[in-house]
Amino acid sequence: MTELLLITAWLFPLALIPVLFMRWRGLLPLAALPAFITATLLPPGVDLELPWFLLGSQYGLDASDRVFLMFSAFVWMISAAQAELTMRAQPGFTRFGVFFLLAMSGNFWMILGQDMVNFYLGFSLMGFAAYGLIVYDRNPEALRAGRIYLVMTLLAEVALLTSFMMIFTYTQDLAPATNQIAGVSNWAIAFLLLGLGIKAGFLFVHMWLPLSYTAAPAPASAVLSGSMSKVALLGFIRYLPLGEITLWEWGMSFVMLGVMAIIYASVVGLLQTNSKTILAYSSISKMGLMGLLLGMAMMHPELSDFVIIAVVFFAAYHGLTKAALFLGVGISHATSSKWVFGILMILALVMAGAPLTSGAMHKSLIKPVIQGLDGDMATLMSALLIISAIGTTLMMLRFLFVIHSRESGQASSPARIAIPWSMLVAAVVLLPFALPYAFPSILDSWPVLFAVLVAVVMLRFLPQLLRALPGRIPPGDMIVVFSHLYRSLHHFSVVCSNRLEKLAQGRKTVNVNLLHNWKSILIPGVEKSLAAWQVSGILFMVIGIALFIILWLM
Asked: What pTM does this model have?
């Protein structure tokens, strides 16, 4: 009977959707309870095979899966309770709850499904349902963020499906072991990097992340950052041949992306004026660090076990802490209580890696990776960890400054609103003391103190510069570049159209009216068609079927 928990954990949120319309209070937090029970009480080694379901389904939990399911279920549970307390009276709460439960089910489905079909279907359900969470407020910012998110999600879906089809073509197994993946093509790894990298928020495909985290309500931002983006790391652990072969070129690509993300996201994050946007860029920077670690494992297979431990621990502590920070932002909007800001300071210290925190413990888990590298690479890795710690600390100081300088409203019952949040904060603070890992030396946290000193010096001697720079780079950063590129192409097309029109008038061989109106008829029609959900879905299916036929014939 315990095997049924593997199915109940992800089906139960779906089963609650009809009940949601009865408007019963306290329903949302219960949806994650079976998943949390499964993660904590299911004995090791229990799995379930359903050969009649889909193409043959396999469900189970290994050590990494159990950690991901445990902290994800806890984040969903706390965020749902926070939504019940702060959003229940809003007219769109039922709609929010439906998308919330769909995304929750997809998240758990990905973790529990041990084959590529279930992983992909959970990935798709979670990805598309998150769109409803992002556009909840229906304001222009939310709708813009939703459009960009939807485009990136469709790209991620196609890329991941392509990668999985290539892996299946090579292994002839829907649940391949790591050693079976060891010979897959470079294209399979490239599409895997693109598909999962979009969900993780890797650099160059991160544009949706700061816009979505900022636009979504606080409980939605908490699960987007704390749970949904983290399962991309689980995908990399499962479907990259870590520990089997040396992939030097791909490892170096991951390392370079990670280095650029650590530096770029830290700089852009410091120039933001919205507290949630700052947290979003902090996540991009931290995901860059995870990309760096995965790259090291691909370049040095003997270090893969240490890397996997560090990545899994990062997913747990960062998921819990970042969810707590986003929920704390929502609570700070509703109350001006000083203790809320004090708790946010504690969470910021955890993110920065202050002594006796999970952030500091994570550094000790990365040390074996550094010790296993040669001289130059070890020096580079140590330097990047220092840069990452300084950048994160500065972003957390910027986050606290924005929170402190913003005027807060008043809540009718602030103590009741903060009950779920306080439970999550307690888990964040107590997590490192419940694990068998050692804290590093207090002296290893010197980058945190150095970053504080840098901030103090800049506030003292460069106050005008600090006031002038924020807001210069908008959220989504690279979207601005694409917008300028689009406007340039638009201008170029107008010029070409005018010249063709003049040429047609001179030679009287071209229909002038058609040339004059082609932009106003053809382009909007195509954009309107592509914007429709039905056409986008059909287009996605056609691309997927075409890729499947091509790979089948290879």
From this structure: 0.87
